[in-house]
Amino acid sequence: MSNVLFTWRCNSHSISELELGLTLAQASNSASLLILACQDNQFTAQQINPLISACPLPICGGIYPKLIYKNELMQKGCIIIGFEQQVKVSLIRDVSTLVIDEQLIQAIEQTSLMNGQVPSNRSLLMFYDSLINNTENFIDCLFECLDYQTHIIGGGAGNLEFKQRPCLFTNDGLIDDAIQIVTLNSKITTAATHGWEILKGPFLVSEVEKQTVISLDYQPAFNIYKDEIESISNLKFNECNFFDIAKNYPLGIQGVNNQLIVRDPILTQDGYLQCVGSIPVNSMVYLLKGSTDSLIRAAEDAAIVAMTTIDNNDFSATIVFDCISRALYLDDIFSLELDSICKHSSEQTLFGVVCFGEITNSESGAIKLLNKSTVIGSW
Amino acid sequence: MNNALFIISLQHEIAMAIGNKLDLKDMLKVFLKVCFSRLNLTSAHIYMYCDRNGLPIKLAKQQNAPHQHLLSIPQMKDRQASFVDLALSSFVKELDTLQHSHSRQCKNSHYLFGFIIPQQGLLIFETHYFIEETIQKALTPILQKLATSCYASIVHDSLVQEIRSRKIAEKKVIYQAQHDGLTGLINRQHLNDLLEKAITDSINNSHSGSIIFIDLNQFKPINDVMGHTIGDKILLSFAQKLQSLANDNIDVARFGGDEFILVIKKLSANHQQKIEQTIQKINNLLSTPIMFESNSYKLTCSIGYAIFPQQSSEVSNIIKFADIAMYEAKNAKTLQGIQYHTSMSDKINRRLAYSNAMKQSLVNDEFKLYYQAQYNHNADIVGAEALLRWQHPIYGMVSPSIYIPIAEESDLILNIGQWVLEQACRDIHQLKQEELLDNVGNIAVNISAKQLIQHDFQELIINTIEKNDIDPKYLTLELTESFLVENIDRSIKLLHNLKAKNIGCAIDDFGTGYSSLTYLQRIPANTLKIDRSFVTNIDKSKESIAIASMIISLGKMLNMKVLAEGVETSAELESLKSLGCYHYQGFYFSKPMPLPELMSLLDDKKQR
């Protein structure tokens, strides 16, 4: 079991506070440490590296825009989680250089993930640099290599300036361009919801280049997107406000059984729409809208599923990966979403991150990269 | 309307995923991944119809073939390969029998949907929901496209396989053309190419290189006695050891037989040290005996080397020079490598010139036979040894110790030997004409090793005797002890035949061969000739007296006449007499002389 033995948090951006936390964590008999930090701490590798390289315990975690502790949204500070047992941390570095599937599979096969006896109840946490552009290829390959019973939950680390900086805590220091997979010896219960609803569509994705939609219904994608939004709202796009408007109107890829996979448009250029996550050519997409109620209700639905015990054993911890765009959309009332999650927790440690892209298994078992979603896992 | 559009979009998206890669497995993987994301699958599997070799094939109509698992996503289920799953296996069997789309709900409430890829294989999807009929039907035309693409990939794969096989075959041919079949080392032809490059490189980059020529010592007897199988194993073992010295700057080649060559490239200014170290390593390789079938073979080698481009920038020359140096090392019986020097070639050229001169002299009749009389203790002449003299118009009188070894290296010794035999027989005939033959007793002629192993040697002797109309009893053949022993069975048979014809046999240089006395008893010889090395100063040497006494006793025991060669003083004569040796040859009695002088000497004796 990978029970949480030690929990420490602080709301200070001071490096010395983190140093204190690490000292306490090491004194706690914890076997491994998960470190989460806010981007606004402005920690640099030079500051962090001496601290974590001096730590003899396996380390994992990352720097995220904001952290979640119980129902609190932390703008600054750190959380340290100490695991009772040692967790295996598999690190894949220089991911952006792994261009083809064979390279990704080889990198996965070289990690401790594929070595030795695989416990039947293992689950995985995934922390990764959100600015690597082959996350979906990686998770496809990971799913191909893993036993299909393996549950996974994770989220992309980074900063709101969308600049690639070292953002993952490893025993080698703070690094970027990497994916970290933490093996828990516990079965994790997961749930993922988004709460976004169909506003208009469907539109045929007639031309696409990976994460960039070039045309919808054979017309420039941004033109369609802009016209539809401007026709149903008082909003007007100008050169500066794309993301302010787009964060309220994601796209949804229609799957079988009418489920929607949300894709977040983050910028436009030359009439294209660039999203977080790929949109397949020839697929059908909808323009989505959200409401504070639907989003908060969806988050609560996820919390209920993820925190309902199956065998009456209490959970040791619950981790939340909540999309940054939800926090930006809900803004001041994001605390209500956290309240709706927190109220379903019991004695377990409830913590999490606000992240760029959420990872979990779909209902079918496949691993998916989600946008604008709340992903919760308990073990 | 939206549903119809959705199905069309789904159909297009999946169809567009077909044929994006050439390799069959890669192509199907791309297809399955799109199916996964669009159909929200739990797992997907592909089985292909295969031939006897397990290679995917396209079935002809009415043809049956077994299917084999090709691909599953994910690869694992319950910690074992996905396709091992029992529910899946039985479903695949069922689907193959039915040969049409089929579905089943499993115990875990999941569904298995099976589709036929026409004439190619089976496609199975596992889902946690029921795929509606319209979507299932929408997949049917896609399956035909998938089958076409599978066939294209199979054709492509077989072409790739054929190209790969051809490349392997080409590589094999190139390898065989460049490597020795027995040892796998670089062969002579490839060595020439590599050496040419190395020499060019050394000239362009102002550095040196070396050819190290290695020849195993006494390897032929191993091959002769133990057979070629063992010989080959030893060569292979040595080759493997030598190969351990190979690196980017050292090539190891088999030159032929038991000859090997190392090419050392990019030598620094201090190349002597590197070469000596390499030679030391080669000798170290042989320091441990080679073991086969509980037999141990301790080998040594002779090593010669030459430096390029300083000593030559021609491939054939530099190899030849190293070879010449190797022969110098072999003659010197040294394990230290010897570097080639131009004086070695001069020596060879001199030998070549002598060889040519000898051929010419045979034609010009410039060889002469001299005779050195043999005496008994009463100073009576009891025989004479025919000795070859070469009076060359330019070289003058050449010593036999120079030209005989040169003649023995080639078949020239056979021509010379035959000339000696014929001339001796002619001279015997002349002595007979002059009625001096009984005064000389018999004429001894030296026979070389090469003459003796001629298949028709016996015939040649008899024919020569008959041609000159002489009594065979006047002819004695002198053979060295060491050669007789090396070819003991053949020699004994031949000498018995000649003895039956009344031709005598003397064992020359006796005492130097250290041969087993057991053999000596079997040799039908009349005379034992004590080597001159035991006669010279015998009056002053206890060791010589001991050896001469032993030979004399042996002669008596075997009923052979014992003759001492090289008697030069009265003291030596007296010592020999006192030991019981009564036949002599040497300057004390008379020098070698032309036939007319011998005849005068005999005439004088006869007059007295």
Spell out the key features of this protein:
heterodimer, A: 379 residues, 9 helices, globular, B: 608 residues, alpha/beta, Beta-Lactamase, Alpha-Beta Plaits, TIM Barrel, 8-stranded mixed barrel, 5-stranded antiparallel sheet
In the predicted model, the low-confidence regions of chain B spanning at least 5 consecutive residues are none
Give the N-to-C terminal Cα separation of chain B.
150 Å
* Physical arrangement of strands within the biggest beta sheet of chain A: 5-4-22-21-25-13
Report the sheet with the most strands of chain B, covering strand number, pairing sense and barrel closure: 8 strands, mixed, barrel
CATH architecture of the largest domain in chain B: Alpha-Beta Barrel
Strand content of chain B: 15-25%
Number of strands of chain B: 24
Summed over residues and divided by their number, the pLDDT of chain A gives a mean of 92
What would you call the shape of chain B?
A: elongated
Proportion of beta-strand residues of chain A: 35-45%
Count of helical regions of chain B:
22
Number of strands of chain A: 25
Mean pLDDT of chain B: 90
**Poorly predicted segments of chain A:** none
Shape descriptor of chain A:
globular
CATH topology of the largest domain in chain B: TIM Barrel
Overview of this protein structure:
- The complex is a heterodimer of chains A (379) and B (608).
- Helices cover 24% and strands 38% of the residues of chain A.
- Chain A is globular, with a radius of gyration of 20 Å.
- In chain A, helix 3 crosses helix 4.
- With 379 residues, chain A is an alpha+beta fold.
- Chain B folds into 3 domains: 2-161, Beta-Lactamase (2-Layer Sandwich), CATH 3.30.450; 188-340, 2-Layer Sandwich (Alpha-Beta Plaits); 350-607, EAL domain (TIM Barrel, Alpha-Beta Barrel), CATH 3.20.20.450.
- Chain B has 22 helices and 24 strands.
- In chain B, a hairpin with a 4-residue loop joins strand 15 (367-376) and strand 16.
- The chains are: A alpha+beta (379), B alpha/beta (608).
